[in-house]
Amino acid sequence: MERDAVSGPGTGLSIEPGTLYVVATPIGHRDDISARAVALLSHVDVVAAEDTRHTGRLLSMLGLAVAQVSLHEHNERDRVPVLVERLKQGEAIALVSDAGTPGISDPGYPLVAAAHAAGIRVVPVPGPTAMVAALSASGQPTDRFVFEGFLPARAGTRQERLRNLATEPRTLVFYESGHRVVAALADLAQAFGDDRPATLARELTKVHETIRCTTLGALAQCVADDADQRRGEIVLVVAGAPESATVASEERLREVLDALLPELAPSRAAAVAARLTGTSRRAAYRAALDRAERDDPEA
Question: What pLDDT score was predicted for residue 9?
Fold first, then answer.
């Protein structure tokens, strides 16, 4: 489909044919959508939406009548090639999720990756994301952080993941659902310690927004006692491990590997050491190889 670039009124905006626009939408407060996002949504050929009903309500609120096509985790495999072909034909497509920035614990990245692979221009239209909103208001260090998304639903897998993160020195950001947040906070307190500083950010930008900055132990107790704190969308921001804990963990790993390596191959020693110390298998294996090479430089 051939057409000229379209300028959005009053924005200096230019809509380029054959371009994929990754558009952030509000996570709660409707006024958080940018003027640029509104102008783009009013001029693209089609909106690829996680849920067309949800996005339809947003478009209606904005007074926009735009064609939509659904794009979610259950149809991405079939739908992405079709959308890439439409982009190749010159259509401008806006990718949106139900709330926030597409691809951040939401569908979207397979389409973005496929567009890049096909030589199609991808343009981000930045805006709200619960992760950054929670981090900015958490009171935790923000110069270095790790986004872990949703923790595993299964208790054993979740607890293992948290043991591997217990000595991570950077601030940690998690998404969690209301029906799992009690168990998740209990496991966090168990793995990181009751006294680790943490913030619970709930229903950000919405009427019942809550931000609680305290410790993991206090948050676990609060959420267990108050059902209201288990409602809505939840972000957990947890302070990184203090340097002393990281150093102690590394020393413990070295001690365990020194005992195991004379008896076991590095891969086996690393697996046992990871289980005993709570270190990730990858980190334990790297440490095992380093120590094996140090002890036998000719190996």
Answer: 44
Amino acid at 144: R
Q: What is the DSSP string of 17-70?
A: TTEEEEE-B-SS-GGGS-HHHHHHHHHSSEEEES-HHHHHHHHHHTT----EEE
Beta bridge partners of 14: 7
| Cα–Cα dist 84/78, whole Å | 11
Residue 178 in 3-state DSSP? coil
pLDDT at res. 3: 47
CB 248 within 8 Å of CB 226: no
Q: Give the predicted TM-score (pTM) of the model.
A: 0.79
What confidence tens digit (pLDDT) does each residue in 84-120 have? 999 999 999 999 999 999 999 888 999 999 999 999 9
What pLDDT is attached to residue 210? 96
Amino acid identity, position 205: T
Pairwise CA distance, residues 284 & 277, whole Å: 9
What single DSSP character describes residue 32? G
**What span, in angstroms and rounded, lies between the C-alpha atoms of 148 and 119?**
30
- Give yes or no for a contact between 22 and 50, defined as CB atoms under 8 angstroms apart: no
In the numeric block, the tokens 């043991």 are attached to 163
- Which tokens sit at 235? 């972000």
Report the run of H or E that residue 47 belongs to, with start and end.
strand 46-49
Output the six-digit token pair for 93: 């497509």
Between CA 214 and CA 242 the distance in angstroms is: 16
In DSSP notation, 86-155 reads HHHTT--EEEE-SSBSTTSSSS-HHHHHHHHHTT-EEEEE----HHHHHHHTS-S--SSEEEEEEPPSSH
How far CA 266 is from CA of 167, 252, 270, 273, 290, in Å, comes to 22, 17, 6, 10, 10
Residue ranges for the chain with pLDDT beneath 70: 1-12, 244-248, 295-299
Q: What are the CA-CA distances from residue 135 to residues 145, 198, 208 (Å)?
A: 9, 11, 18
Q: How far apart are CA 234 and CA 4, in angstroms?
A: 43
